[in-house]
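Forum: Protein Structure Q&A
Topic: Joint prediction for protein chains with partners

I've read a bunch of threads here and the consensus seems to be that you should model interacting components together rather than docking separate models afterwards. I'd like to see that in practice. Below is the full input, 670 residues plus whatever partners are listed. Could one of the regulars post the assembled result?
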Amino acid sequence: MAQPQVPVTVLTGYLGAGKTTLLNRILSEQHGKKYAVIVNEFGELGVDNDLVVNADEEVFEMNNGCICCTVRGDLIRIIEGLMKRKDKFDGILVETTGLADPGPVAQTFFTDDDVKARTRLDAIVTVVDAKHFLGQLEQGDEAEEQVAFADVILLNKTDLVSEDELKKVEDKIHSINRYARIHRTQKSRIELDAILDKGAFDLKRILEFEPDFLHHGHDHDHGDEVASLSFSSERPVDPDKFQKWMGALLQLKGQDILRSKGILAIDGAPKRYVYQGVHMMMDADWGTPWKDGEKRSSKLVFIGRNLDGENLKRGFEDCLK
Amino acid sequence: MSKLDLGNPEWRSQLPPSRKVAADAPVAACAFGRDGKTVAFALGDGRVRLLPADVKATEGAAPEPVHNGAVLSLIADPNGDGFLSGGDDGRLLRIAPDGSTTEVANQKGKWIDKLAAHRSNGSFAASVGKMALVVDKAGGCREFGPHQSTVAAIDFSKDGSRIATAHYGGITVWSIGQVTLPPRKFAWAGSHVALKWSTDGKFIATGTQENDIHVWRIAQASDMRMQGYPAKVKSLSWSADARWLYTSSQPVFTAWPFAGKGPEGKPPLQFGDEGAGLITVVAAHPAAEFVAGGYDSGELQLGDIKSRRSVVLKLSDGSAVSALAWSPDGLQLAAGNDNGDLLVVDLRR
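Posted by a regular:
Agreed with the consensus. Here's the joint model:
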């Protein structure tokens, strides 16, 4: 019997950015919804009317020869356990530790059949500390990766910095991730519908998450830093060539490409072809139909490290008719 | 076991007598008590439903929840005719045949999600996070671990002197006798999600996150890997004579041959009627060459590895079979599904 898939929101953010405050707000607000919360630091939450599960982040490599295929083993087990409960949830919130790489969490929802059958990844929400973000970037890859994976970013503690400093932080976020929607917040205060049930991983709703083509970050050489690159064209795409290229690309560069998304105008097809990937894993499907007279254009976005813009551009252009 | 006869035309033409109770909460596990008089079902609303094994006896009223959350695991109590249950409330309970409970352990914030008992020495084991808990007949409690990840499955050796745990990176065998020996780790990359020690004590089989099964020969520390399953193998069951390892996650009964030189280079024996979906739970008969299999479609089949035939014990109803258990005498079978339907089938003829 097909059961509805429970939406899962992943909450990331560097130490002290305001994740726990946000979680407490979600859980204490009167919204009539029931959430299961999977946390790492037990006891910090001041709420006990919802189900709180304590998890150790157990990152497992899949034994299938793919070194970037990592999943959260604890999450697979906990979701399976939660589904044994009679009272179902309106949603599941997964809080990661401040130093966690969001990759394995996201990949769990692409990899495990049981998890896929019962739940769907709704969005990755990252809380960014406006005052300390630029400094945190210097201390390791975590803060950068958390922004890179995000669908929604809460730029928090905006009251502690000047408008100029805020702009600088926003520019930096944009240069890492052009996709994410940024909300400026104080004390993690935000309307819940801005972060819950976004369908950011729903191929049918991918259009709502268009990259910000207008925004130009700093165009200096990024080197090892995470950046986003986007490409578009109004020429139709050859589906066979595209699949071959993307397959080979993710196979080869999957470790560096953190997220990828695309909306394609396939030659002769009445509907949009939409896809998205996390590292090497990819989902694709037909999306909404093109309207009569609508301009058909294809868009691709890559968020990752060591992205060779020229090479990617050429690869994409080779797939065009 | 002449009473179970798949060649009997009556078996093929009608379903056996059974009791069906709608419990309205997913069934995590079921078990018959040691005396075979009571059968218990672990439910997703915190209740443990006890039913008389006799399908014609009065069934009694539904009980109150004993766990605050879902009951995750349930086995027969090796020291009585009742049961042991573990929940996501971190409690491990002893449940008497009359339904009264006593708390054996309470580890708030953790889940008691796997239980196993030795058939004769009165010990049982529980997985609690990264630790394995062993309680002996006298009630003495010892902890083994921590393991490198949460313990995903647990089982006893035939002689009851050791337990084996499944986790990320392989399995660990712990000596649980009075003399403390260092644990033996058997490594195989990846996450191991199910584990069963063979009924002759020679092999340990696991199901993995990558849809394989892995089997270790304990004495030689050699191992083998069986691939080609379309889903994770979460249910494993050794035949009473240890000649066969039955596995879930195939459309028909699938048995790897362990008699003689073992299964290396041989295909598994497959039999039964296809078309009911994938097997989700298998349970070998406690004495004879029969095996019960529950499907993701809800169908229940009884297979006979000698004649390689199967009969349908319950028709599919769309809700996956999630638990299966034989009575100690092997004449009754209990099953539960995701919908909360409890079933006791009487196979006596």
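The mean pLDDT of chain B is 94.
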